[in-house]
Design a protein that fits this description.
six-stranded antiparallel β-sheet, elongated, Hypothetical protein af1432, 4 domains, alpha+beta, Thrombin, subunit H, disordered N terminus, Pnp Oxidase, Chain A, six-stranded antiparallel β-barrel, 567 residues, 22 strands
């Protein structure tokens, strides 16, 4: 699309024109822009510069526009030189011909060129009515993460992502493939490195700033075109909204909808099986971002940790059964986040039965939520190892100190609670645990409780060195290991949550499968939700709710099942 020339400065010196054209004649140095609405940079090769006579162009790659050019359609040549954007005046073909299978054309030598100082740091802002999509990553095991483009420059972009994107970004490599997609279907693939991020928990978004890495000249030209079109369209819409007088400008073709298929949403934007699970997903999104913050070398946000601990404790006090069942509906979250939520909820729940002050329960819950996030900092080969030698085992222990150090600025948390929960989760009564290897007489009462709650959930999840255990096998193991686990807390745990805890998938004698929603005084199911699948709960897989006589007809469960979990 034709642009106003007021922003460009003319170059009339013959020497300067020749120097600039020499740069455009380098491989990939020039693009062709048709002088009509909707024009975009097209690939062209400036084959020869005959000073004061003609320019010879190779338009073999764009034969589809050759007919229009031969009929007199004007165009400009675009390029970059010495940190400036360069373009010719509108040109017309003098003649076109085939030579050795290539389509060449000749245009008059320009009497002047136009240059615009490149504003590398200028960012074109997209206003609320302008939409453009950014897809991040090309992992084969998940859909690309989808975001919304907020601003764009030649150097990078600001992208709004769902708040729960932290785990995906934390697992990504240092350079991430980005695909920019505009409403008219225009696309550009570039590589970017994340340089900064900011979470907006009220709007449930994460603003991520990316720096483009290794852009080719063609990618830079395309980026500059996008930047200019965004800036021009934003100005046009601003003038229209202000009802300014004057001739209306043509809308940018970038933001004219096409008939292309809609972009698929990011993989983590899923339906949840219950209303409570949807509410709990906001806490999961927060932990995702904290996980990412740790990987970026930042401390955990003290204020946000306090706020989300309050929210989770309020949910637990509002409807503990719904929260306990919601824990098994978090299968779309990362395993570290699932584990942190589960341990936090169960630790605070059992602590609430022992007349513990609310502030202490909140502190326990907060520490438990983040206690294992430091594992995201470990190398993949260490986290995924099926067995560890002594050196690897020592390296594994670093994750504990990583979280404790990141909590240093959380002044509302007691150092004793941090040490007991975060520092004590992996300690054992016989001194075989880590990181300090202390023995029973030195272990705080909260540490003894935390160790039980943590290991029950951990053993119920698959690891590289073993399959997940069923709950009855976990209970049996703990009760047979008095040298490792405080038996008082093991027995209290079993009594409190039941022999068939809420969130267990059970099978009945008739083959019926059901999720446990409530347990009676004997720890047996008193309310269940039928399902036909041995898989984590999804809205479409859940059936009728049974309790009372209808449930009694099924008898007692004959099997407690392990549900496959994937990260």
């Amino acid at each position: 699309m034709a642009e106003t020339t007021s922003e460009y400065e003319p170059v009339s010196s013959g020497r300067d024109i020749q120097d600039l054209l020499d740069v455009l004649s380098e491989p990939g140095g020039a693009s062709l822009m048709l002088d009509k609405p909707g024009g975009q940079p097209l690939p062209v090769l400036l084959m020869d510069v005959r000073v004061d006579e003609a320019l010879i162009l190779d338009i073999s790659a764009i034969r589809e526009v050759a007919v229009g050019l031969k009929r007199g359609l004007g165009f400009r040549l675009l390029g970059q030189a010495r940190s400036k954007l360069v373009r010719t005046p509108v040109l017309n073909i003098a003649q076109a011909y085939e030579l050795e299978g290539r389509l060449l054309c000749e245009v008059p030598y320009p009497e002047q060129l136009e240059v615009l100082q490149r504003r590398d740091n200028f960012r074109a802002e997209l206003n609320m009515s302008m939409e453009a999509t950014v897809l991040l990553g090309k992992a084969q095991d998940r859909e690309p993460l989808q975001g919304v483009l907020k601003n764009l420059s030649l150097e990078g972009a600001l992208v709004a992502l769902p708040l729960g994107s932290g785990a995906v970004l934390a697992a990504a490599s240092s350079v991430i493939p980005l695909k920019l997609i505009f409403p008219n279907g225009s696309q550009l693939e570039v590589s970017g490195a994340l340089r900064h991020d900011q979470s907006d928990h009220d709007r449930q978004v994460m603003l991520a700033g990316f720096e483009f890495i290794g852009c080719s000249p063609e990618q830079e030209r395309q980026l500059w075109f996008f930047v200019r079109e965004i800036e021009r369209e934003a100005a046009r819409r601003s003038r229209e909204s202000a009802s300014e007088a004057g001739a209306a400008k043509e809308p940018s073709p970038l933001f004219q909808s096409s008939e292309r298929k809609p972009v698929r949403a990011a993989s983590h934007q899923n339906e949840y099986a219950t209303p409570m699970a949807r509410r709990l997903s906001r806490l999961a999104a927060y932990l995702d971002n904290q996980l990412f913050a740790l990987k970026q070398g930042r401390n955990l946000d003290s204020t946000q940790l306090s706020r989300h601990a309050d929210r989770l404790l309020a949910l637990l006090d509002e409807d503990r059964e719904a929260v306990l069942f919601a824990l098994v509906c978090m299968q779309h979250e990362s395993l570290l986040v699932q584990h942190g939520l589960a341990v936090a909820v169960r630790l605070a729940d059992i602590a609430g039965q022992h007349s513990m002050p609310r502030d202490l329960r909140k502190a326990l819950l907060a520490c438990a939520m983040v206690h294992d996030l430091g594992k995201a900092l470990l190398p993949d080969d260490l986290r995924k190892a099926a067995s560890l030698d002594q050196a690897q085992y020592r390296a594994l222990q670093v994750h504990v100190e990583s979280v404790m150090r990141s909590l240093a600025e959380c002044n509302w948390l007691s150092r004793a609670v941090i040490q007991a929960v975060v520092g004590g989760a992996n300690e054992r009564l016989d001194g075989s645990g880590y990181p300090r290897g202390v023995k029973s007489e030195q272990l705080h009462e909260l540490t003894r409780l935390m160790a039980v709650v943590d290991v029950v959930d951990a053993m119920g999840r698959e690891r590289p060195d073993r399959a997940a255990w069923a709950i009855d096998a976990i209970y049996k193991y703990l009760l047979e290991q008095p040298q490792l686990f405080d038996q008082r807390w093991v027995q209290r745990y079993v009594r409190h949550f039941g022999v068939v805890p809420i969130g267990t998938l059970v099978r009945y004698a008739g083959g019926e499968l059901a999720w446990v929603l409530r347990v009676d005084a004997q720890g047996q199911p008193s309310r269940v939700l039928l399902t036909e699948h041995i898989a984590a709960p999804e809205p479409k897989t859940l059936g009728a709710m049974l309790e009372g006589r209808a449930l009694a007809q099924l008898g007692r469960p004959t099997e407690k099942l392990v549900v496959p979990v994937s990260d």
